[in-house]
Design a protein that fits this description.
The protein is mainly alpha-helical and 65 residues long. It has one domain. 71% of the residues lie in helices and 0% in strands. It contains three helices and no strands. The N and C termini lie far apart (43 Å). The relative contact order is 0.08.
Length: 65
């Protein structure tokens, strides 16, 4: 949960801007998008496997280059 204490003499716009940054850094928006629709466990595993393969391929290219 994100908490924001409004500072003295801080405008609403500044407080909202700080709140948005906090939410973005905490990963809440990303988590909400991920949970927006049900995803089958097989799809989750497939996506993570593909991500790992891409990461391994990129690491191999960086070490060779």
């Amino acid at each position: 949960m994100v908490k924001l204490l409004v500072r003295d003499r801080e405008t609403i716009q500044e407080a909202v801007r700080r709140f948005r940054k906090l939410v973005e850094r905490s990963g809440i928006k990303k988590e909400m998008r991920r949970r927006e629709y049900y995803e089958k466990p097989s799809e989750i595993k497939r996506r993570s496997r593909l991500r790992a393969e891409r990461r391994a391929r990129r690491n191999r290219q960086l070490s060779n280059g």
